[in-house]
Amino acid sequence: MGRRSYAKAAALCAAGVLAVSGCAGDGQEDGSDGSDGVSVVTGAYPLQWLAGQVGGDRVEVETLAEPGTDPHELELSPRQIGSVGSADVAFYIGGLQPAVDDAVSSQGGENALDVAELVELRTLEDNAGSDGGDHGHEEGGHESGHEDDHGGDEAADDGDGHSHDAGEPDPHMWLDTERFARAAEGLAERLGEADPDHAADYADNAEAVTGLLDGIDTEYSQGLAECESRDIVVSHSAFGYLAARYDLHQISPAGLDSHSEPSPGRLAEISETVRESDITTVFTEPLTDSGAAETIAGEAGVDTAVLDPVGGVTDASPGEDYPSIMRANLDTLGEALRCS
Questions:
Q1: What percent of the chain has pLDDT over 70?
Q2: CATH code reported for the domain at 124-170+227-336
Q3: CA atoms within 13 A of residue 292's CA, in its CB half-sphere
Q4: Distances in whole angstroms, Cα of residue 32 to Cα of each of 20, 165, 205, 231
Q5: Which of these, 154, 277, 166, lies nearest to 227 by C-alpha position?
Q6: Which residues in the chain are classed under CATH 3.40.50.1980?
């Protein structure tokens, strides 16, 4: 258990609040020395996976989202809110999950680590206007792309009249492997501050994760280099980072809100785009309602396939963890976009 947890352990255990590092094992060591490690709490599967990779056996990770649930719809119990304050590190992406933002505001403090502190998040405007020039480059803190018809999202409108501020950050940064690698490095630094005796281990783990993510990035760059189409029609605008990085054009009826209901006119507009642009596939997601995507595919007479934004892992996911889902997504894109 990290230093922050010791100060609160007795009171929180009595209140039934501390779930990250556990009460029964307080002061005891198991085979992995986990009780002497660092406790991390997070609300989203990608950050859970990253924390596990960077922390290894020294870190105990609690995710606040139940497996197979949409991370955007997360609601927290009083116990979970308490765990945000008791953890050594509360690792989150501001704006992704309002419930987590509120818990950090009320319970967190020095333990809070917002990914936005580690990585510059793209805005909706960035993801609507970039042509993929973000591929591995940032200049003076700004993306180095230029405006074009490709890359990012076609619109910031949810399709039902609800528009997001163009300057609002897009939280789905884990679909950009370079940004995700930088988040790993930043997390390793914070874990090293909480557990200085093992700082070198965390740094080594982050380096290994970076190598893994670099490999996936290379696979995507090569696999999507030559494609007959670069248009991806998706259920909601979760793929702006991926689109910008690999010069794809994201078309969505629902904007960032995975539960918004696009208007019939918006559905008809996208269906016409699918027919006119020789798009062969409309993509659905495992964790959200894909009714709009299926309607578009039916009206346009094309196929559907699962493109997973890796918001969580479920039986319907095309893989068992972040790397395998990312690679399955690449296979799906390669087939749908007719890449060679």
A1: 76
A2: 3.40.50.1980
A3: 30
A4: 16, 46, 16, 47
A5: 277
A6: 3-117, 124-170+227-336
